[in-house]
Amino acid sequence: MSFVHVIGTGGTIASRAETGGAVVADSTEQVLESTTLGTEITTEDVLQINSFHLTFADLVAIQQAVVAAIHTPDVDGVVITHGTDTMEETAFFLSLLHDSPKPVVVTGAQRAADQADTDGPENLRQAVIAAGSEHMRDAGVVIGFDAEFHAARHTRKRHTLATSTFSGGTLVAQFYHDELTRLATPAPYPILDIPGPNFAQLDIPVIDAAPGSGAELFHAALEYGAHGIVLQGVGAGNAPPTFTKAVETAVEAGVPVVLSTRVPSGPVAPIYGNGGAVTLLAAGALSANQLNTYQARILLAVLLSQQLPEDTLRAVFAAQTG
Length: 322
Ligand SMILES: NC(=O)C[C@H](N)C(=O)O
Prior knowledge:
Elements (H helix, E strand, L loop, with lengths): L2 E8 L4 E2 L6 E2 L3 H6 L6 E10 L6 H15 L6 E5 L5 H11 L6 E4 L12 H12 L9 E5 L2 E4 L4 E2 L8 E2 L3 E6 L2 E4 L23 E3 L7 H9 L4 E5 L8 H11 L4 E5 L15 H6 L3 E2 L5 H13 L4 H12 L1
Parallel strand pairs: 1-4, 1-5, 5-6, 6-7, 13-14, 14-15, 15-16
Antiparallel strand pairs: 2-3, 7-8, 8-11, 9-10, 11-12
The structure holds asparagine.
């Protein structure tokens, strides 16, 4: 019999209706009660919150729980129950640091535990089976949802309400007729060191360069002391021309800027000047390349917390986004 450790953090999978909106109510033990499993399970409540409340300190707490579980000799794999809104950030953060053949499956629900058609119990059942399965060795950190298991990197929530909502990253495994089939192994990336002690204090705003927006917010972020900025451009990473000077000012002040794109697929590419990615990268921005805005922000936060020399930060960032 396989042995899986389930780490609860909250989210809709643990929520019930209240006047004023659904709120997290159930412990991990209670979440598991609705699921029939033939697996040995231990549980732990690390958090009981919606994922839109998560802080960087919470990410560290989840990661520490994962490491402890993975080092428990008989544990075959780990499941994390988590809100879907920021699941892609937590899963990606864990994947940057994950150094074990034991899989970590992050799952949740789009419909609360007390809704008749809740998807939580089935997602959890499949996540536990997958985490305990030898087919998932070396699968890394995956988001398991609606019978699909996607590598954390590049996976995003695609629909606010649909139960099939996560895609983008490598499809690592899938249930067909209740049989788990391994399909792929995610491309390996260098494993990062754990974040430094100031990780939880880092302030890294995302600033959008939509048509008609000026760089005032960007400059305001520098003035209030942002530690880094993710500039989300349009197209292949382009922005109104006022952002070029803003990026130069930030980089000169030692505040790293990452250039990402709001387009769901494809890389940031230096094609256009006069405010385009050619200009912004020449001004010193780091390219998020294929990495989406929010995962690029997590990567920047981890590297900033390690207080690396600028050249090293640039090289490690490039190696993680290539
Ligand atoms: N479906 C969900 O879990 C959404 C919820 N708002 C959360 O992220 O905690």
